[in-house]
Every structure is written in C-alpha cells, then in structure tokens.
Automatic annotation (TrEMBL):
Molecular function as annotated in GO: hydrolase activity
Similarity annotation: Belongs to the glycosyl hydrolase 3 family.
Lineage: Bacteria, Pseudomonadati, Bacteroidota, Cytophagia, Cytophagales
Top-rank lineage group of the source organism: Bacteria
SMART domains: Fn3_like
Protein's organism: Pontibacter silvestris
Descriptive protein name: Glycoside hydrolase family 3 N-terminal domain-containing protein
Amino acid sequence: MIKYIIIGFSFICATASYAQGGKPLYKNSKASTEERVKDLLRRMTLEEKVGQLSTLLGWEMYQKQGNKVTASAEFKKAVEERHIGMLWATLRADPWTKKTLTTGLHPAQAAEATNALQKYVVEHTRLGIPLLLAEECPHGHMAIGTTVFPTSIGQSSTWNPALIQRMASAIASEARTQGAHIGYGPVLDLAREPRWSRVEETYGEDPVLNSQMGVAMVRGFQGDNLKSGANVISTLKHFTAYGVPEGGHNGGSISTGYRELYQSFLPPFREAVKAGALSVMTAYNSIDGVPCSSNEFLLNDLLRKQWSFNGFTVSDLGSISGLVSSHHVAATPADAAALALNAGLDADLSGYGYDKALLDAIKAGSVSTKVLDRAVSRVLRLKFEMGLFENPYVDPKKATKVVKSPAHVQLARQVAQESITLLKNEREVLPLSKSLKSVAIIGPNADNMYNQLGDYTAPQPENNIVTVLEGIKGKVSSKTKVTYVKGCAIRDTTTASIAEAVAAAQNAEVAVVVLGGSSARDFKTEYQSTGAATVTGAAGTEMISDMESGEGYDRATLDLLGKQLELLQEIVKTGTPVVVVLIKGRPLNLNWINANVPAVLDAWYPGQEGGNAIADVLFGDYNPAGRLPVSVPKHVGQLPVYYNFKRPAKHDYVETDAKPLYSFGHGLSYATFEYSDLHVNISENQNDVQAQVLFNVKNTSTRDGDEVVQLYLRDNVSSTVTPIKQLRKFQRIHLKAGEQQAVELTLNAEDLMLLDTKMQWMVEPGEFTIMVGASSEDIRLTTDFRVKNTIQLSSLGE
C-alpha cells in the first residue's frame, strides 16, 4: 500500500510540476488517457471541436514537385479555417483520385507526405493536435507500391482465419509505416444478393464464416499495442445489412425484420467488436425506415449499451448529407448533422456532413455541448492511445523496407493458393503435366493484370503482377509451346479474335481458358461523389470498359458478358481438353460451363500473385482446398439462393429446381477424404450446454492435401422459425496421404440459441441434428442429440 501511495504522490507532483512548467496536462504522457482527453477538451473552442470530427478527402492535401512532397495550400487552408482532425485516403491512388504511378507517391514519399501534414498541424495550430489518417485496406493498403492480396471473397474462400490474421497484420504494417492510423476494413456485410456490385468486398453469405474472418482481420490490424508502429485501428463496414439491397441496387433499400437482423446480419459485427474493433462505419441504407447514419438504436443502444463498444463511429462518404438528398428525413444540412450526431454518429467522412452544418445546428440549439464533447472525446481518446501526441511521425526508410517485402509477396501467394476453389475435375484432367508439348492460354483475363486485382486497388507497375499467362510460362518446360490469344474482351463486342483462339486450341494438347469479370477502373470511367463508378454504355464506337463488378456496377443478370461464352463454346467444339479458370468478383452463370467443361477453377480476384498461385494449382504443385463462401445460382430467378434459408423447405420451379449450381462450402481436391465415427458428448447445467462433437477424417488418396471440415446444425423443433441448416464450426486441416486425424469441435449455448417469441436469447429443450461434411450439401455424417433444459442467455436490452 505504501508503495502505491508513493507512486501516486510522485505522479501528482510530476503533474503539478508539468503544469507549473507551462505545459498543459494533455501533453503529459504520464497522465491517464481520460485525464488528457478532459484537459484538452476544456481548452478547445467550439470550432476546434467540430473540426476534429471532419474527415476530409486526403489525396488533395499534399503537393509533389519532383521528389519533394509538402503540404498543399488546400491542406493549410482546411487546417486554419476548418480545424480538421482527420483525413481519409491521403495515399490512395486510382482513376477516381487521378493519382497515377507518376503523380502519386511511392512508400518513402508517402511517409514524407504524412510527416509533412503532421508537422504542419502540430507546429501551426494553437493546440498542436495530430491528425488521424485513415486508409482503404480491404485486401492491401490502397496505395502505390503495396502488396495486393486477394479480395475478401477470395480470403474467405481459404476458410483459414489464422492465415487471414497474418495477412491483416502485413497490411497494417505497410499502412502504418507510411503514416496511416486507421485501416478501413473488414467489410462484414452478408452477400446474399449476387447482383449487388460489392460482393467481392465481403466474406460471403454466412454469419459464422464472416464472423471468423472479421475477427481475424481486426486482430491482425490492431494487434495488442496500438503504439507499436505496426498496427492500425480497424473500421468495420458497413453497419448494417448493406449487402442485401432490393434488386441488387448498391446502397438501396433493404427489407429485414429485427429477428433476422440480430440472428444473421449483426453477429459478424458483434464478434468483431468483442475482438476489440475500435471504429465502425455506418451503411448507406435504412433499417425499417431509419437511416443507419441517424439510427440511435444501432449507434447507441446496440453498439454502446449492449455490446460495450468503446471506439468511434464514422459515416460512409456523404451519408450524413444523404439524410437530406437520399433518404429525405432531414430538410437542411444542419438538420441532418443534428440527426446524425444526436444518434451517436461521431465522425463525418466527407468534411461537409458536419463542419458548417454542425456549427449551425449547435448554434440553433439542436445539438448540445454534451453531445458534441462525447463525439470529440471518442476521437481524441484514440489519438492519445496511439501515442500520436508523442510520436506523430514515421520513418521513410522503414517504409521502403516494410512495404511489399519478399515475405509479404510470398504471403500474398499463399493466400491466393489457399483461396483457389476447384469446382469440377472430371476424368482427372487436372493437375496438368509440366511436360506438355503445347498449351493454349486463351481469354480476356489470361494476361490482364488489373482484371485480377479487384476494386480498391492502386495503379501497379507491370513487374508487380503475375498474370495467369506468366504463371503458366514459369511452370512448363522450355520445350513446351505456349500460345496466347485473348479471344475477346469482358464486355466489348466490337473486337474479337475467336477464330485465332480456336486455331490455337486445335494445335494444343490442352486449352486453359480464363474468363469471368472485372472491377478494374480506368481513367475514362465516370464516378459519383461517393467514389462508386457510374455505369455507362458504349458511346459511338468507343471501346467499352471491362468493368462489370466493383462498387456501383450492379447487374440485372449474372451471365458471362460480351462474347465470352461464344468464345468458350467454339473452343470446346475443337475437342481439345479444356480447363476454365474464373477470375471475377461475384457468382456468375456457370450452367453451360458446368455441363460441358471437365475442369473448372474459381480464383475470384486473386491479387498480385494470382498467376503464380493458379499455375501452382493447375500443375499440381499446390493441392487446392478453397471452398465457396457463397452459393452459385443457376438463374437470377432463383434469388435469393443462400444455403441457410429459413423453413419451410423450398420447392422447385416450373423451369428449374430450387437448388444452386454449386452450394456454399463446395470445393474439390486432388486428394480424397473419408469421414467416420461421429459421436457427441453432451454436458448441461442451468447456464450452459456443451456438445463435444468428435469424428475422424482420413486422406484415402496417395496425395497430401487439405480438407475443410464443416459442421452444420439444425434445431428440429423451435418456438420461432430457424434455418434448415446453419454452419456452426469449421476447420481446415492438412492430412498426408493415408493419414487419419481425430477432429473435435465443441458447440456451446451461443451456438444453439435462438430469439424466442419474446425476443429473448434462449436455448430451448429439444432435439438438434448435427451434420458433418465437406460442404453444406456434401454431408458425410449425421447424428442427433437432445438438450433437456431451458437456458436463458439474455434479452435484447441486456
């Protein structure tokens, strides 16, 4: 006790001495974060407080002259007149920002740029409050020279959260060493509407898989020490139910009840918040008529009170002003600012949602000082906890060493390898022999580096990216004749070389045809103020962009566009064995391919090492084990077609059955696996239940490989309607040829619970069915168990 009294007295003396020296308490690193926040807050003017909540577009805030990077006049004006506290996408480069490989910043320059911005605010403002710099980081930091990993839909196809946590840690280190503090991601929306343009940014259709991937990203981004210089704050997107817009229209209206909201759409966010996520971004849509950006239930009652979230919330770009222009729930910008801030939306991504509008609202009395201080304190708290007041700068030399290091490039290849999903392999067409005498590489995505990278990708020097053509050339013998013909584009039908492609296939032992889609933006594309692309058709004889996916590119059909199917059909007619490789951002109509092509690989957007990873799988150097994180429909008329639909069971249509072409969890291997000996041990008490699920998996082939074991659950009789089956546990395991492994997966009360008729989380007594297998449809083992007692977990208000 005496020891603690001495320490406390010493701290008081140090604080008093600090104050007497003329330095304010908030600059004392030995003071607690809360003391520093309160001290700084009381010193701030109204305008300075409002400025801290503004997140302006950052790429306009530096100027580059030769190799010298300095703060721009626009930045200085924003600081002096608007007292800004945050920037977004300062280092972003893409056609929307008009930052190219020439006009943008390489890693060392990026570090110099963020240092220049920090130096200006620290030295030229009254209080010297450093900036929080947010960057897009969904599958790599969206900046020049960084490592480009597979997009999120590919990441989840690995079914390997530990790998994705390693990837997130690498992304965080690349962003942080260049001066960023916040990484936007993960996107936790359920992708139950494949026509929607942003499916590629999600982890698929399932709340459990999404939750595990989201937790992995948060832990990888944030680590256990925000002052490490290698970690960033994770911003969860988009809160909430954004991924199921009616008609597939991006940002459009959604329809869901609160039970479905709690049981399906909210769990990934809840788990990520439990894992420590410190920032949440609101969605553009509304929930039951209340926009997410002014939804007090979501932002305060749920996030703060029920989940104990202790970070800050931020709008999506322009969504506060959207309360006026899109949702029409506010008449003026000041009304919109008041609605959002009073509901618990802390920060404004755009710089014009709060700013003057918020000052007007405060002066009109519609926002109190208490509410304003609450939001500002949440932003300041993280600036202190990241150590920015002590060390706002980064080392440009370190950025050069960390960004796109050989280890990160190898990791990108591994994530791509593990993501690749073998959809079909009849007659063991795959793996291919490296001693082929001739191979034809055909298709619009065979040698197009940007088409394999996905949306939210910066410009790339050509030597950064390995295409499928380059990957295959690196695998085969020097004696193998490799012929490449593009054949056609993704969408454009004005130019095609189908006859040349057919000739190449006729003269080859095998034809690898690389088809799909593209999210690759170009400098001719028009953009909305939110950064989403504007869909445009052909203008005269101008070439049409390949882009058919990515933010803003919603689809009415899921068919292969342009002449892709015609190209494939003509190649198949040659009789040459055909392998189709799919590079794309959403499920597409694969009916003809499935019926007529013996081998099909799905690579989604596999990132910079995609060509190497695809070649590794094609030639057997890597045994594929990716699994679909989303169901692939046979027709848009089946939608929605996600696997865990609620009862009653679906019946067939006049034209087709109700089943997807490929089910959630589907994926093949060059190895074969056998499941056996399923049994369940149950233990119960009044507060919990444990179901220990045990079974064996054996590799019955002569080839080593991974298997993704999946455990699904059905509540056979329940007081409210529940899914026909629901993934509860999964594990990716590696088995050598002939090896058998005992697998143990444990279910607890949270895995068995439902929301009853009184909206209380309960485990109800009764019979449950466990289904274990290789996909949601490929169930190998089944057994039932019974819960004897009622277990009440909580009501929604707790």
